[in-house]
Amino acid sequence: METSVEEIGQVKRRINVEIDAEEVTKKLDQAYKEFSKRVKVRGFRPGKAPRKVLEQYYGKQIVDDVKGDLIKESFSKVMEDTKLFPLGSPSIEDEVIRPGENFKYTILMEVRPDFELKDYMGISVEKEILNISEDDVDKRLEEIKEAHAKLTSVNEDRRIRKGDYVIIDYVGFWKDRPLKGINGKDFMIHVGSQNLYPDLESGIVGLKKDERKDLTIDFNEDFGDRRLAGKSVTFRIYVQDIRKKDVPELNDDFARSLGKDFKSLTDLTKRVKEDITLQEERKTDRELKSRLLKKITAMVDFELPQVMVENETERSIATIKQNLVRTGTKFESSGISEEKITQDLRTSAEESVKEKLVLGKIADMEDIRVEESDIRDGFHDLAARTGNDPAMLQQYYEKNNLMDSFGNQLLAEKVLNHLVQGAKISEVQEISEKSQKDRKER
Questions:
Q1: CA–CA separation, 105 vs 95, rounded Å?
Q2: What is the C-alpha to C-alpha distance for residues 121 and 123, in angstroms, rounded to an integer?
Q3: Which of 95, 101, 125, 283 is the most buried (most CB within 10 A)?
Q4: Own/partner pairs, 355-359, CB within 8 angstroms, 24+ separation
Q5: CA atoms within 13 A on the CB side of 51
Q6: What is the Rg, in whole angstroms, of the alpha carbon atoms belonging to the chain?
Q7: Both ends of the chain: CA-CA distance in Å?
């Protein structure tokens, strides 16, 4: 077998493979011999049908099988000989197999770009000084208080007003026909939040419990939900219940109700400040690493493997679809154009791929690897953040083939930590205008 490699770009390779005629003939002879034992040909005993008869009836199938076997058996040897690693599935271009002739096929694939990276250590980068104010703590305490509020039915005979939580049944009609998917039963609306349709929320203000109303809303042509865009829709509404939010007082009793760790409001306030500090430290650390990596990737330019960009884009779209499912919305009925969102996500996907390739390059140059201890520590850290058992998390990742992805994340973080240790960090009260601009563009 002979191979030759052609560079048809920084990341594209064409590998020409030629298998000796002797090997081709041997494979064909063996295939016909084994095939004759398995099939029944009228007029011949098993295994006694002449090859010309087999060629007439089964020739194409046998030749295709031999071709597939030759490619499959030689592919790994070709990769080993050329020392190339394909990104994604390579495409194969092959020729016709003929007895007594060499068989040729071509592998077209993308590989990681080979580029030179210099002076990535010791880069100057800004880091914001952590500043947790009393207002930050008070705001978080208010959020905790709101989260523990209870909704209770309004007993007094009054009408719906802004701020109420209203349980309704509704059906949307267009041209006197119900619109598919535009309905809800036992649906809660926080009046004034504009989480459903603003005109519908304002339209139920003034109604009482058990009242019904037909409310017509004219939707603009550019409305996000394409099922409603440009339509005059009548909503048939029934008010089931009107509820109000009862918010607890922020005192020692409330603090004690949150768990045995809190004996007073002072204990709760202290824990809240610690949690905010930890969150802000992590946020500041992420932003520092992001600015540093952006500076390093800007120092080098190279062609990106399109298969990696497409995979990254598809992952982002899959995440968006999953998030929509969690809110009870299907992507197909969300009014979002997959073609448009794919175009919008492509730029960020290209940036992400470039960063991954740069981090991978630095990992190779600095001989940074993920060890078993890193995996163990990684799962313990993930368990601490999610409240799960480390062993159960690892079992889940292994079962769902997520270990490679987890290892890649740990490697990226390890490389970033190495870069931060070597960087020239200046602490500032506020990130400079240029750095802010970089972050927004990112």
A1: 6
A2: 6
A3: 125
A4: 355/293, 355/297, 356/308, 356/408, 356/412, 357/112, 357/113, 357/302, 357/304, 357/308, 358/117, 358/293, 358/296, 358/297, 358/300, 359/293, 359/411, 359/412, 359/415, 359/416
A5: 10
A6: 32
A7: 48
> Does any domain span residue 118?
no
Q: Specify the residue for token string 């031999």.
A: 66
SS3 at position 110: strand
Distances (CA, A) of 206 to 79, 157, 163, 262: 73, 12, 12, 43
Q: Does 241 share its domain with 317?
A: no
- 168: β partners: 187, 239
CA–CA separation, 243 vs 151, rounded Å? 6
If asked whether residues 233 and 283 sit together in one domain, one would say no
Domain that holds residue 27: 2-110
Across 154-295, the runs of DSSP E, i.e. the strands, are 165-174, 177-190, 212-218, 232-246
Q: Tokens 């989260």 sit at which residue?
A: 147
Token pair of 305 as six digits: 């493997």
Both tokens assigned to 213: 């109303």
Q: Judging by DSSP bridges, how do beta strands 124-128 and 424-428 pair with one another?
A: parallel
How confident is the model over 196-248, as pLDDT tens digits?
Answer: 788 899 999 999 999 999 999 999 998 878 889 999 999 999 999 999 999 99
Shared domain for 398 and 422, answered yes or no, is yes
> Number of structural domains, the chain?
3
CA nearest 254: which of 150, 103, 184?
A: 150
Residue 334: predicted pLDDT: 63
Question: 3-class DSSP state for residue 126?
Answer: strand
CA angle 55-56-58, nearest 5°? 60
Q: Name the domain boundary from 219, 246, 273.
A: 246
User: Do residues 212 and 240 share a domain?
Assistant: yes
pTM for this one? 0.71
In whole angstroms, what is the distance from residue 162 CA to residue 201 CA? 9
419 and 372 in a common domain: yes
Is pLDDT of 441 > 50?
A: no
CA-CA distance, 200 to 184, in Å (whole number)? 13
